[in-house]
Amino acid sequence: MKQDLLQKAHLLYEVEGGHLQQLLERDETFSRLKAKLAQEERRLAKSDPKAAEDLAGARRLLLEMTRETCFKMGYLLAHNYPLEEVQKLEE
After folding, report:
1. Residue 89's closest CA among 19, 16, 7?
2. C-alpha to C-alpha distance for 59 and 66, rounded to whole angstroms
3. How do residues 26-73 score in pLDDT, each as one tens digit?
4. Residue 2 pLDDT greater than 70, yes or no
5. Distance from C-alpha of 16 to C-alpha of 21, rounded to nearest angstrom
6. How many whole angstroms separate alpha carbon 51 and alpha carbon 72?
């Protein structure tokens, strides 16, 4: 049972991953934060490369946390989707 749910979560993540990225890119808060971090990284790269590197690491961590949260949400959604329905989404 648990393996079946995990399989469904992985399938949903693969199928909906691109859609999720598009939604995040269109989200005003996410886009603004991403742009602000990139701008700050560029500014710091000139004067304090170590701080710029640390900020880039924080940005990567934030994106990884977002991705991980989405996967966990997919795992929860897998409880509500029959495996056959998920496989149809994949086609």
Report:
1. 16
2. 11
3. 889 888 988 898 899 999 999 999 999 998 998 888 877 887 787 777
4. no
5. 9
6. 31
Secondary structure string (H, E, C) spanning the chain: CHHHHHHHHHHHHHHHHHHHHHHHHHCHHHHHHHHHHHHHHHHHHHHCHHHHHHHHHHHHHHHHHHHHHHHHHHHHHHCCCCHHHHHHHHC
Q: With contact defined as beta carbons under 8 Å apart, do 79 and 5 qualify? A: yes
pLDDT tens per residue, range 11-29? 777 777 777 778 877 889 8
Predicted pLDDT at 91:
66
Residues 64 and 57: their CA atoms lie apart, in Å, by 10
Give me the half-sphere count of Cα atoms (radius 13 Å) on the Cβ side of residue 55: 18
Is the pLDDT reported for residue 83 higher than 60?
yes
